[in-house]
Amino acid sequence: MSLHGQYDSRNIFALILNGDAPCYKIYEDEQVLAFLDVFPQSYGHTLVIPKSSQARNILEVEPAALSAMMAAVQRLTRIIVDELQPDGVQIAQFNGAAAGQTVYHIHMHIVPRWEGKEASEHGRGKAEAQELQALQARLVERISAQGGV
Ligand code: 5GP
């Protein structure tokens, strides 16, 4: 499955949305869910997905779902930058296997970056559960302390 194809309702993000697979959730509202990438390219690597869309990629996503996702990405990026104080932050989105996509429910990556620290390979190297739990708690606390995103 790649740039063109059918939405697979058993993809891992669909399972997470349905509650059939776990995630380290940091934020949710009516339109989006944000959670930590378990194979992070960098500390704080976060994924933001639309909840109601069955778009696999940018070609298919409804403009309203895209807008809601991007607005959430901006708000969450501000929080992640405030909390983790990176030197930079990458916002990424991949379409089709040739472009690096591995999960076919549209999503945005928020990847904090630090000077002199290379990003890990995309989708490789699982983070320790303890580290993800601690990071989740930190970001959830930050969101709560400022009264939401
Ligand atoms: P893509 O390659 O499609 O742009 O990004 C998919 C992302 O999902 C990758 O960064 C990969 O590390 C992440 N990922 C894959 N499986 C899981 C999972 O089960 N849980 C979480 N939280 N992230 C996952």
Notable characteristics:
149 residues; HIT family, subunit A; five-stranded antiparallel beta sheet; single chain; 5 strands; binds guanosine-5'-monophosphate; alpha+beta
What does it look like?
The structure is a single chain. The protein is of the alpha+beta class and 149 residues long. The chain has a single domain, classed as HIT family, subunit A (2-Layer Sandwich), CATH 3.30.428. The protein contains three helices and five strands. The chain has helices spanning 12-18, 63-84, 129-145, and strands at residues 25-28, 32-36, 46-50, 88-92, 108-113. The protein has a five-stranded antiparallel sheet with strand order 1-2-3-5-4. A hairpin with a 3-residue loop joins β1 and β2 (32-36). The longest helix is centred in the middle third of the chain and has 22 residues, at 63-84. The chain starts with 11 loop residues before the first helix and ends with a helix. The relative contact order is 0.22. Guanosine-5'-monophosphate binds at residues 12, 23, 35, 37-39, 94, 100-103, 122-123.
Largest β sheet strand count, sense and barrel closure:
5 strands, antiparallel
Number of domains: 1
Mean pLDDT across residues: 96
Within CATH, the superfamily carries the name HIT-like
Strand content: 15-25%
Q: What general outline do the C-alpha atoms trace?
A: globular
CATH T-level topology: HIT family, subunit A
Rg, nearest Å: 15 Å
Q: How many DSSP E strands?
A: 5
Estimated structural class? alpha+beta
Low-confidence stretches: none
Gap from first CA to last CA: 34 Å
| Quaternary structure type | single chain
